[in-house]
């Protein structure tokens, strides 16, 4: 485990993921190092929460994970400095206790409030928490981290470690967690392996796969609003969720592959394009860094060619092949762009990238008991947001499939797209999903 003295700071190079973010940096005022580029997740907590123990546990987590106390320097090609640990904020909020109150909705509103607060990336720690209490036995724990320091996988790691540290602190003990690799260890490993055979083989894969490819973009319709990111959200019934899962099993695919296949059909019907390259987020982690906090996520372009596809089952097969190839050759986008320099040429002021992802974080606690507390992740987000965590100019489709429904969201640049237009697209996509999974062997 890499450690940092409380009296000094340690400077390290940037990862390729951080270097990519630096390409779009606009100081610490806006963009990927701006105060609204945040990662937020929440859990319902059942049991009496000891606030003092929770504060101590939060400090333990910041001490344990260097990324949460690391500042990126944007000048002169970029670097990062690991700083001494600082006590993170824990905000306490009393929530509505009235009989019949919709606690699920109130919990989501608390997440939104936490997400819309300014979060400077040049001040440590890059983690803070909100504890909303309905009563002594029912609380909502919201964790916020700056997205340049922690991805969605990292947030789950943080909660897992926080729960273990809290259990020890509540019992009056020091936490005894196993040693963990740090993000700068990952940067060093990435540099060492950059010229190795595995990276070379993956670069060759992308060079061939993306020959002549251009990223999927959406034409913009400027609205005159100030630049910011809004969120449109939607849900489906249990029948559609079951049909997606059924078809995934039949085709030896994942639900994500089926939903992405339906998305390519949706795009084809809107644009008549048959060669569709949709970026998605991939975790970017080897096994040895699965318990490390940091910005690991990659953008992986998934190229699906619909030429010759007669039925939706054909499209799923093509999509499955594209996903397996991409996921088994995952690389940071800077490596991929070096092999496919024309990939982003379709994007510009009048057309911005469109991404598609499935939200399936690891360690997703659902009624998991650690010590005296039980944690249940809040993954169901249904409240639209006029202002949320920043995403780069463009549009991101996010899907979460459960046993009872598909919950989806569209984050979009509100200064580039009208809300009504986004809503129409979401409704049209849901129609295509329903049509395709209901009759996968019918002509598309």
From TrEMBL:
Domain Condensation: from-to ranges: 9-330
Pfam families: Condensation
InterPro entries attached to this UniProt entry: CAT-like_dom_sf, Condensation_dom
Range of residues in the leader sequence: none
Protein name as catalogued: Condensation domain-containing protein
Species assigned in the record: Streptomyces chryseus
Lineage: Bacteria, Bacillati, Actinomycetota, Actinomycetes, Kitasatosporales
């Amino acid at each position: 485990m890499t450690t940092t003295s409380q009296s000094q700071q340690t400077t390290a190079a940037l990862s390729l993921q951080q270097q990519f973010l630096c390409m779009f940096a606009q100081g610490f005022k806006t963009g990927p190092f701006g105060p609204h580029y945040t990662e937020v997740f929440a859990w319902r907590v059942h049991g009496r929460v000891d606030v003092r123990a929770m504060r101590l546990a939060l400090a333990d987590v910041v001490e344990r994970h260097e990324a949460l106390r690391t500042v990126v320097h944007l000048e002169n090609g970029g670097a990062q400095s690991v700083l001494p640990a600082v006590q993170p904020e824990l905000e306490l909020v009393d929530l509505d206790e009235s009989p019949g109150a919709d606690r699920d909705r109130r919990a989501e509103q608390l997440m939104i409030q936490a997400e819309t607060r300014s979060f400077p990336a040049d001040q440590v720690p890059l983690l803070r928490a909100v504890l909303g209490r309905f009563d002594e036995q029912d609380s909502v724990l919201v964790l916020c981290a700056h997205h340049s320091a922690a991805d969605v996988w990292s947030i789950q790691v943080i909660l897992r470690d926080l729960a273990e540290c809290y259990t020890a602190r509540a019992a009056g003990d020091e936490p005894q967690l196993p040693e963990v690799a740090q993000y700068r260890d990952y940067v060093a490993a990435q540099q060492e392996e950059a010229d190795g055979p595995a990276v070379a083989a993956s670069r060759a894969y992308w060079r061939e796969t993306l020959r002549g490819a251009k990223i999927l973009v959406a034409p913009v319709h400027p609205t005159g609003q100030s630049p910011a990111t809004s969120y449109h959200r939607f849900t489906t019934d249990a029948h559609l969720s079951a049909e997606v899962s059924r078809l995934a099993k039949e085709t030896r695919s994942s639900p994500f592959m089926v939903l992405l296949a339906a998305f390519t059909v949706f795009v084809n019907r809107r644009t008549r394009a048959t060669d569709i390259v949709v970026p998605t987020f991939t975790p970017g982690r080897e096994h040895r860094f699965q318990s490390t906090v940091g910005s690991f996520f990659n953008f992986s372009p998934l190229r699906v060619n619909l030429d010759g596809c007669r039925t939706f089952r054909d499209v799923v097969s093509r999509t499955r092949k594209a996903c397996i190839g991409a996921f088994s050759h995952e690389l940071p986008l800077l490596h991929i762009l070096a092999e496919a320099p024309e990939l982003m040429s379709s994007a510009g002021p009048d057309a911005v990238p469109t991404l598609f992802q499935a939200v399936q974080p690891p360690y997703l606690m659902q009624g998991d008991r650690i010590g005296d507390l039980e944690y249940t992740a809040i993954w169901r987000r249904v409240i639209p947001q006029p202002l949320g965590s920043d995403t780069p100019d463009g549009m991101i489709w996010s899907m979460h499939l459960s046993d009872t429904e598909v919950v989806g969201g569209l984050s979009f640049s509100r200064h580039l797209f009208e809300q009504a237009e986004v809503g129409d697209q979401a409704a049209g996509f849901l129609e295509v999903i329903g049509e395709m999974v209901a009759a996968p062997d019918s002509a598309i």
